[in-house]
Every structure is written in C-alpha cells, then in structure tokens.
C-alpha cells in the first residue's frame, strides 16, 4: 500500500469558464485563462488498500458521507479504469486556505486528487494527462495542474480538453488581493449556476464571443506585462459573466450587499491614481489585481473600509508537486 501525497494550488480565472458543453465529460463551452495563486492550496494523500470495501474520503479530518464524495469517487473510478487497479482507496485531503476565507477549493482539491490518485495507482502520467483527469472532478481544476498563467483549451473531446501553461514562472511584479466579504458556502453552486446560464440566458451566445475576444487580447497583454490591458479585460470579463446570472431565468446573483460597495472602493482607488482591477467568481468576494508597488495602498484602503482580517494577499503560485 503506497501512499502518495500531491499538493496543488488554487487559481483565479481572468477569463472565466462559465458553462459546460458536455456535463459527463466536463467539456466547457469556451476556453478560459487563469493565474495560479501561491496562498491557497490542497494537500491530498491517496493509498489503495485491499482491506477496504468502499472508498474512504476525508477532508480536513472529516470523513465524507458517500453522497458528498460522488465526484471524488468518480475520479478514483477513472484512475482504476486507466490503471487496472481494483482496490478502493483512502483519500485524505487538507485544504490550506486561510480560515473562513470563503475561497473556492475545488480547483486545488481535484488537481491534488488527480495527481495523488494517479501516482498511487502506479500511473506515470504527464501533467497534460493529469489536467485531463482533474477536469473530470471540477472544470477549474484542469488549470491548477500548472503554475502561473494557464489556459484551459476547451477542446472537442476528452483528449483535447486540457490545460496548457502560458507562462509558468511569472516574473511580473503583480499581486491578487482577496477581499473576503462572506466566508460561507455559496447557495448556488458554480455547477448549477453555469448550467442555468447556458440554458436560460439569452446573452449566452454573446458571452462565447466575448470570451473568444478576451482570450485573444489578454494573452499577448500578459506576455508583454501590460497591466492596464490585462486589468481592463479581466474586470470586464468578470462582470459579463455575472451578467449571465442576472439574465438567467430565474435570475440570481452571487453579489451581496457589500459587493457593490467593494467595487466602488476599487473604482475610487483607481480614480485616485492607484491602478487596480477586480474580479469575482461564484460568490460575493472580490479579488483585486494590482501591481506590487501599489500593494500597500490597496491593502490599507481595503482594510480600513472593511477589516484587516478580510484582506489576504496572494501572488502567482506553482503547479502540482508531489511531497
Ligand atoms: C466562476 O470549476 O467550480 O470560478 O466544473 O462545475 O466544478 P465545475 O465548476 P467550477 O467553476 C468555476 C467557475 C468560476 C470561473 C473559473 O474558475 O473559470
């Protein structure tokens, strides 16, 4: 019984993934692009054990009920199919996300699971293969196999829907400041929210067009370290994603009462000459993209308007590693 531990970091999408084309294979409607972050990661240990009669899954030392571990067991089943391993597995996962940060952990969790399970089953898979496997647990996990700026190519089938690194070793002095407005679990999961957007928002076709244009424009901007262009694109892209939730039937929103106040703060910082841009995922919390030289001004302003323990600074982070 060999135990393998993998560590994967979470990522923040600059051009969002918001919709599946195939819910079984987890193929997205569009490609997407993210930055892997250094602050938030998951360590997952997997070992296959012939004394088990079912998979045994624990997150942060809490054993998951079978109903809560469906996606984990699905990834383990794929690993068993690919490797010929027939035993069930112990999975122990620890999320290293600052207490009550309210930040998504499914990206780091499924990337770490894919890596640890694949190796524990004796597969010697490339990172491209691991990103394909991670995708089957959660779409955003596809990108967390790699560090730095990463693109998930939508692809047209299981083989072609994988992440590719755009730039793994980031030397650009930038930061992503998380402003935590509500640490609780989201009421509408990303899975449900994006499905409702795809099937009911009349703006969905326009979203696909927006993503294609944003990806084409943001990639050279990142490589040229063009902060203004990168920031303008990521902010507009996030708001256009959230417009899909408002235009869905029934309409909904991930924003809470403080979200608009926080957006106004970022706009006020910008008006005062501190360049910074916000993005939001399937929750009310902001992530503020800024330059290292402005980090003090940005965090001071956010901490004074909200509170210091709601502000967490992250930088570009690495891809999957084995411990
Ligand atoms: C808003 O990857 O959590 O963070 O594939 O259904 O597990 P599933 O969804 P998930 O959705 C992420 C949505 C997002 C944008 C992004 O990360 O690209």
Alpha carbon gap, first and last residue: 17 Å
Class from secondary-structure proportions: alpha+beta
The small-molecule ligands in this entry are:
ligand DP6
Q: Determine and state the CATH class of the largest domain.
A: Alpha Beta
Which residue ranges are poorly predicted, with pLDDT under 50 across at least 5 consecutive positions? none
CATH architecture call of the largest domain: 2-Layer Sandwich
Topology order in helix (H) and strand (E) letters:
EEEEEEHEHHEEEHHHHEEHEE
- Beta-strand level of the residues, as a percent range? 25-35%
Describe the structure.
With about 325 residues, the chain is of the alpha+beta class. It has 2 domains: about 5-170, Ribosomal Protein S5, domain 2 (2-Layer Sandwich); about 175-315, GHMP kinase, C-terminal domain (Alpha-Beta Plaits), CATH 3.30.70.890. It contains 8 helices and 14 strands. Strands 1, 4, 5, 6, 7, 8, 9 and 14 form an 8-stranded mixed β-sheet that branches. A hairpin with a 4-residue loop joins strand 2 and strand 3. The radius of gyration is 19 Å and the shape is globular. The two termini are about 15 Å apart. Ligand DP6 binds near residues 32 and 138.
What is this structure, in a nutshell?
This protein has 323 residues and is α+β, with helices and mostly antiparallel strands.
Features:
single chain; 323 residues; alpha+beta; Ribosomal Protein S5, domain 2; Alpha-Beta Plaits; 2 domains; 8-stranded mixed β-sheet; 4-stranded antiparallel β-sheet; 8 helices; 14 strands; binds ligand DP6
């Amino acid at each position: 019984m060999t135990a393998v531990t993998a560590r994967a970091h979470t990522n923040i999408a600059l051009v969002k993934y918001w919709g599946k084309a195939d819910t079984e294979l987890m193929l997205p409607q569009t490609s997407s692009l993210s930055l892997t972050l250094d602050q938030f990661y998951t360590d997952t240990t997997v070992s296959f054990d012939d004394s088990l009669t079912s998979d045994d899954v624990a997150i942060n030392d809490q054993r998951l009920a079978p109903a809560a571990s469906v996606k984990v067991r699905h990834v383990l089943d794929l690993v068993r199919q690919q490797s010929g391993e027939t035993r069930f597995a112990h999975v122990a996962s620890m999320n290293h996300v600052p207490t009550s940060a309210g930040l998504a952990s499914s990206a780091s969790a499924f990337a770490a699971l894919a890596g640890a399970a694949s190796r524990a089953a004796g597969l010697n898979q490339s990172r491209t293969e691991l990103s394909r496997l991670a995708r089957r647990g959660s779409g955003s996990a596809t990108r967390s196999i790699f560090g730095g700026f990463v693109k998930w190519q939508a692809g047209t089938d299981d083989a072609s829907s994988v992440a590719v690194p755009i730039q793994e070793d980031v030397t650009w002095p930038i930061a992503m400041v998380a402003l935590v407005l509500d640490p609780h679990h989201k009421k509408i999961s990303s899975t449900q929210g994006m499905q409702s957007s795809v099937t009911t928002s009349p703006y969905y076709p326009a979203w696909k067009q927006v993503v294609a244009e944003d990806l084409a424009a943001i990639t050279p901007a990142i490589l040229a370290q063009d902060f203004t262009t990168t920031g303008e694109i990521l902010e507009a892209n996030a708001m256009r994603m959230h417009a899909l939730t408002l235009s869905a039937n029934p309409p909904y929103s991930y924003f809470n009462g403080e979200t608009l106040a926080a957006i106004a703060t970022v706009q006020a910082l910008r008006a005062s000459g501190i360049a910074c841009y916000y993005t939001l995922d399937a929750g009310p919390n902001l992530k503020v993209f800024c330059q290292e030289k402005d980090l003090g001004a940005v965090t001071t302003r956010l901490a004074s308007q909200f509170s210091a323990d709601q502000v967490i600074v992250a930088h570009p982070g690495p891809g999957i590693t084995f411990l």
